[in-house]
Amino acid sequence: MKPVLKQGFGMSDEDSYDFLNSNEESIYEFSLSEMKNAVRHVNVTLLRKFNDQFKKDPQGKSRNWREIEEGEITEIYKTTKANVDSIIEEFKKI
């Protein structure tokens, strides 16, 4: 926030620090809320991606689970989970 206060509002270093110190709790709460919203959105997106890949075949048609053997369902699950896990690994870097 310091660069925004300095460049956007023309505040001095001292004024920036004073502002940040006096609003530290509010800034923390706001930042935490924004991070929770971002993670919530990521979770919903990942769940949707998993469901799309797991429930539909490569042509985009819904799978007929009664025609698929249990072992193949397990493989479809493992492959789909691995795909989503690779996305999660990228988010861990962030």
Topology:
Blueprint: H1 2-9, H2 13-22, H3 24-55, H4 70-93
Can you describe this structure?
The protein is rod-shaped and about 70 Å long. Helices cover 79% and strands 0% of the residues. The two termini are 19 Å apart. It has one domain (2-93). The chain is mostly helical and 94 residues long. The protein has four helices and no strands. It has helices at 2-9, 13-22, 24-55, 70-93.
Describe the structure using short key phrases.
single chain, 94 residues, mainly alpha, 0% strand, rod-shaped
Q: Could you provide a short overview of the structure?
A:
The protein is mainly alpha-helical and about 90 residues long. The chain has one domain.
In whole angstroms, the N-to-C terminal distance is: 19 Å
Please report the total strand number as a whole number.
0
Instruction: Write the element-wise H/E pattern from the N-terminal end onward.
Output: HHHH
Overall mean pLDDT: 89
Task: Report the biggest beta sheet as strand number plus sense, adding barrel if it closes.
Answer: none
Kindly give the count of domains. 1
Write down the Rg.
Answer: 23 Å
Tally the helices. Answer: 4
- Class based on secondary structure composition and strand pairing: mainly alpha
Shape, per Cα inertia axes: rod-shaped
Q: Roughly what percent helix? A: over 70%
Poorly predicted runs are none
Strand content: under 5%
